[in-house]
Design brief:
The structure is a homodimer. By secondary structure, chain A is mainly α. Chain A contains 22 helices and 2 strands.
Chain lengths: ~475, ~475
């Protein structure tokens, strides 16, 4: 039996939050005399009220929350917040179609950043802020989820990261979810403030700085400009955003330890080192080849390569240049980057660096096992050996990821997309990146995809964001057998 | 220390065989008064002589053959036979370029069937027969390899099939490689004879029947006609070839048991049942959709769908219709089929049905393990539970397969191919299929690929044919540490 009352209670609380957050942009709309003040006020307060009523009606519930309740709350949470969050766009008329509005909002809460908007600048400031805020809230959600909730649910080998940081509190940052959340959110908040300050120093106005800081820290990628970051012709702004994308794509427990003076974790954390190596290597290859091709001067070649690589690896999805026009090989490389993903415990999505690292290590161990069939060859990570069940969990994750990617590509081709665009749209949704290749490349958007395709991609964004298993379990018959 | 003398002795024997086999087509060339008799005679006897000399010089060797010697013999065997086998094409001038001739011959011995010939009918009969014979010999090689040698070497979870057939001789068909080989070759030979007879009954002449029987049984796919099987406008011939492709893609131990009256293996063998289900399901979907689209009458829609699906799943690569012009969704489906592969212990290449089946089963077990973390949930296959090390071996195989596919796609794009064609050429080479998509689709060939690309694809064919690990091990440093 599921604990329905408790589930409803938490969902009610989330709806309330959703409603309150919708109204956050009102000061900006008032300042810029936009036409969305009444709409934000009315839909926001109505949503908050609905949430409050559900919350109050289900106050008296059993305290015990079991694993299965956890899966349901997490999945439902993202869905319900997107269902309500889409309403202001429809009522205002800036996104008249509910399917489009839902796609945009799910793309926000999952920190994907795929957009259906053809003229972002035409939206009023309050709605734009709400759009960016969905990503920032999604990012907050995912930090708690990946570092405090999923490890308890045993999803996707995530147990690993809780135990990965050395030090006196070896097993967990803090035993209680609430405390863990609070500590991580403070870091998230401080980094956001810092980015706002630096972007304003670079000449961006307050509104754009707030929006971009929100969507950088969430590795979301929504921009207030149709041209994304390419709109801002300032190397300083580009570098600031690169640095904060890198920070957002890093495991937040590392930030926690670094802020407490334990710099040694940066040296011992294998995932972090591999993350930097991957980004650095791909950037150098691209930057050098672009420069040789006569693309631009060394600094611009390097900056454009670095920005695009960091943006795609961290699954942010900002753009300062269109890699599709660089050539066919670059297209393949950026398509492949869609499958990398940020670090575990970051706001980045995708397969994640740590899984790739462990898969690579395990593959080499397997070769050694063939040569020495009787030897025991463990996979080592951060100086301890990884239990076999975590390896098989990660392998299963990877297979499901590929399986869903393949199946998704077939579905999107049946919807009418060509092969490359179908692959790209599925990979970028599942990886929570944003831009892809073909007709959903950096210079295009998702507006032209038929309605069914948008609902399907929304599902993929959700599956990707919740580490696949959360959703797969709910769809599996054995979940519903008591 | 490798047993170099023994290795050289076996290789010498193989070169001798290679030379003798080159001359097999001479009777046809004499009958048709072709201009290749002298060339086949001279290169054939010279090759055989070289082989004989190496064989005799290394007669006195240690008898003991170790695993590492085995890997080397197997890899070198395929390479050396292709190196020599390419010579007659170059000397005759029908394939003036050695790179092209090597590609064609490696494509033959690995039973891939990818061709660089733009006018197959212009070749003399002796050379055409040699081309088909490379596939038939490659098929013979692979049966012994996969059912008698690889299980001993522990490659790719192949241990499984030796133990998969129930009955009095549970552990192995016959303990000694030589006896196993003899029994399986008799089956291979009898099936080839049967197909020749049936094709002639359908109106094909003796020469074409022999050639197509050779390349069907090897799941090779070389045809004596530029238009492949589409050249023969006879439903009877199409169905005969479909049946024999299906037989060639089946585990040969099943043929052995069926020929000895043990029909029950067909019912208990999960791989065989899954193989038929996969082919049947994909065929029905394609046939019905083709018919609805108004492609042809029901029988032709069914036959064309069935032929193409069987041809690609068994990794044969014959063509009676071009699926590329059916539409984008079909293109995706046939691209994906490149990754299926025939049954283990057949002449088919690719990932293989049994690996997919075990991966699927293991993935579902993994979901159950998440819900019941303390339960032991084994993967069951053919009524017994599969040991964990075989599962991890198969998972590692699959990851390496994907990794090589991805890396290969990048390499082929750097060679100048577009994204789809690069993916297709790599997938079809690694899977030993033949045709692919894009510029290497069923209506095209591999002639236009630059030289380096042809050598690279030849390597991929070899890797795929030898279940990856054989080659990967030789490239891995720990192999060479004593």
């Amino acid at each position: 039996m599921l604990n329905y009352k408790l589930i409803a209670n938490i969902i009610g609380f989330l709806i309330m939050l959703d409603g309150l957050a919708m109204m956050a942009g009102i000061p900006f709309s008032l300042y810029y005399s936009d036409n969305d003040v009444n709409i934000l006020l009315s839909t926001g307060s109505a949503t908050a009220l609905i949430g409050l009523i559900i919350y109050l009606l289900t106050r008296r519930h059993e305290k015990e929350i079991r694993k299965r309740d956890g899966y349901i709350v997490v999945s439902l949470g993202w869905i319900v917040m997107s269902l309500f969050g889409a309403i202001p766009f429809v009522i205002h008329g800036s996104i008249p179609n509910y399917t489009d509005a839902f796609f945009e909002t799910m793309s926000g809460f999952t920190t994907t950043g795929a957009s259906i908007l053809n003229d972002i600048e035409s939206l009023p400031h309050g709605l734009l802020l709400w759009r960016s805020l969905t990503q920032w809230l999604g990012g907050m959600g995912i930090i708690v989820l990946s570092l405090a909730i999923l490890p308890i649910l045993g999803i996707g080998g995530m147990q690993l990261f809780v135990a990965e940081v050395p030090g006196p509190t070896k097993d967990k940052i803090h035993p209680r979810i609430r405390e863990t959340a609070k500590r991580l959110w403070i870091i998230y908040f401080l980094l956001t403030i810092a980015e706002i300050g630096l972007l304003m120093t670079g000449g961006m106005d307050l509104f754009d700085s707030v929006n971009h800081a929100f969507t950088t820290m969430a590795t979301g990628g929504f921009s207030t400009k149709q041209a994304s970051i390419a709109h801002f012709d300032s190397p300083f702004i580009h570098y600031v955003i690169i640095v904060f994308m890198l920070l957002a794509g890093t495991n937040f427990t590392l930030h926690y330890y670094v802020l407490h003076g334990k710099f040694s974790v940066l040296k011992t954390n294998e995932e972090f080192k591999f993350y930097l190596k991957v980004i650095f290597t791909i950037t150098i290859v691209i930057a050098v080849s672009l420069f040789i091709k006569g693309y631009a001067n060394p600094e611009t070649s390097f900056r454009d390569a670095l920005f695009q690589v960091v943006s795609m690896v961290t699954t942010t999805g900002y753009v300062t240049a269109d890699y599709e026009i660089w050539g066919s090989s670059y297209q393949i490389i950026f398509f492949l980057i869609l499958f990398i993903g940020g670090c575990a415990g970051s706001t980045g999505g995708g397969v994640k660096i740590v899984r790739h690292l462990l898969l690579i290590k395990n593959s080499f161990s397997e070769l050694k096992r063939l040569i020495h069939p009787r030897a025991i060859i463990p996979v080592r990570f951060n100086e301890s050996s990884v239990p076999g069940d975590i390896i098989s969990n990660i392998l299963a994750f990877f297979l499901f990821y590929i399986f869903i990617f393949v199946l998704g590509t077939i579905v999107m081709s049946l919807v009418g997309m060509d092969f490359l665009s179908a692959m790209g749209s599925v990979a970028t949704s599942l990886g929570n990146v944003g831009p892809a290749i073909g007709s959903v490349g950096p210079s295009y958007n998702f507006a032209h995809i038929p309605g069914f395709g948008k609902w399907f991609l929304s599902l993929l964004m959700l599956m990707g964001r919740l580490e696949l298993f959360t959703i797969l379990l709910i769809f599996s018959p054995s979940f519903w057998k008591s």
